[in-house]
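Course assignment 3, question 2. Fill in each field.
Student: A.L.
Task: Predict the tertiary structure for the chain below.
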Amino acid sequence: MSLPRHIDFFTSFATKHFSGEAENDYHIRLKLDHSLRVLDDARAIISAENITGHVAELTTLSALYHDIGRFPQFAQYGTFKDVDSINHGRMGVLALRSQELPGGFSKEDWKLIRASIGLHNAKEINPRTNDPLRTMVNVTRDADKLDIFSIILAHLGQKNGPNTVVIHSLEEHPAKYSRTIYETTLAGATCDYGALRYSNDFILLLISWVFSLNYITSIRLLSCRGLIEHAFSLLPKNDEIQTLEKKVHIFIHYKNL
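Answer field:
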């Protein structure tokens, strides 16, 4: 597989959505850089988890192309919020279908890659999903979450306030968070983007992802980067948050990290 050819193709597709308008181009660049970091994290997971051969190649491309739908989404709707525009996974499938793609992979291979892109942002994945698609989706979802974790925390920590597009225009309040989001996170379940109201809800959603990561390598990367501690440092200091923090650390310890 010639990965540089695919990176060049993907980069060319993304930069075609530059308009010369600063805000638009900032967000296009944000998603391009995000996609390349997700690729790097996916390759780290693939290596550490001993995923090899053609499955590794398909998984690598799934990670690279996972957010290809974000570029036409933002160009058409001016938002990354799926509920206010279009499902970006579905748009990614349509985008790939419309492109003359680099060679080296069969129609069946591209069908699997498109399927993985379409599933990467689903709330839950059918446990009966078979390999290689299962591996492709699981690695891509983990790598995606690792980088989103970093992006959101970085934006919430900005002195001049976060970018409203990045945090989905959520209400900023240092002490408020939604009861349902907190309880869902404490239960170890996955939160719904559509239910988020406050910026603290987004942090709780990120924390909920700890329980759904598919690979020990992913949890280790999250932990060694200090992202879990950073997330809790941005939340209110109260008994509820301390209870959640204790549960997360016990979970990580249970995973032998």
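Instructor remarks: The two ends are 34 Å apart (CA to CA). The chain has two domains: 3-140, 170-254.
Grade: pending
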